[in-house]
Amino acid sequence: MHSHVRTLSISALVAGAIALLPGCGQTGHTTNSALPIVNDTASFAGLPGTTGQPAPASYPLGIVQVRRADVIDKQTVKVVVQPAQAGATGESVIDLASPDGLLNYITAQFPEDVVRRVVVLRQDGTVVLDTSVSTKGEVSESVNASAATFSLGQRIQAPPPGVTIDHKLTPKAAINAAPEDKADAVVTVASDLEGTPFVWGHNEDRGELGFDSSNFVAYVYHHALGYQMSGNANVQQDTVGVTVPKWDMRKGDLLIFGNGQHVGIYLGNDEMIQCGGGLGKVGVVSLGPDSEWGKHLTAVRRMY
């Protein structure tokens, strides 16, 4: 999980997405989608603003609302939370029980910091969760294929890097379908989700309400093409799809902003569908060359 993205000062919409969005904000790159719990909270007795005491066993790891998040030193982040109300959604809401929620939030909020430890606390200073993270990662060679390949109109392998096929699911477009049919399937599945709320770490494939940006694209490609891929923002940035030039952007491509801060799917006609991005839900935004999103697009990934 690394955070190596810059906070972009742009319009309110994009700033909300890239600077404030947990899951579509700054970027980190982790090779592990799980957040192992470290049971040595006593070692945090000296952490500023904490009691160094673990939460009672009755305090569940569930959906919380972030009150504030701060870098304590160059490698430790402190996140102060309160229990969220039932059914709460929005870009300050994290599901701590999710394998991706806290990690995607930290990736989005602290792009320039190499975060190795995250401590989540209640407002009274009681430690709820103490987890070790890794922020070292880089885009794999299989992702950064030669752009010249695509200028010749060649197709990528199926499935693309970072993806496996779910043979238990019948997708809208089969693995041997024409590229045009796959593109239509991706757009249809994504568009049907417009209005679905944002929650860090959620993916409706797990029976949860809503999505964050990376889990949204994972769900769309799963149901459209049968692809199984990580909902971890860093893993998607480092391992998923094949990079193509921006000028060759096509309907159904995976779009990456700020080196993993935020992701979305190209709809064609200079539009992108994504979850969050200041909207607090799945929605469509402009991706024209003069738009704020267009200016901060960092990578286009071909998925079929």
UniProtKB/TrEMBL annotation:
Species classification: Bacteria, Bacillati, Bacillota, Bacilli, Bacillales
UniProt cross-references to InterPro entries, sorted A to Z: NLP_P60_dom, Papain-like_cys_pep_sf, Peptidase_C40
Provenance organism: Alicyclobacillus acidoterrestris (strain ATCC 49025 / DSM 3922 / CIP 106132 / NCIMB 13137 / GD3B)
PANTHER family referenced in this protein's UniProt entry, alphabetically: MUREIN DD-ENDOPEPTIDASE MEPH-RELATED
Keyword Magnesium: no
Protein name, as recorded: C40 family peptidase
SUPFAM superfamilies xrefs: Cysteine proteinases
Family named by the database record: Belongs to the peptidase C40 family.
GO biological process: proteolysis
UniProt keyword annotations, A-Z: Hydrolase, Protease, Thiol protease
Pfam families documented for this protein: NLPC_P60
Keyword Ion transport in annotation: no
MF-aspect GO terms: cysteine-type peptidase activity
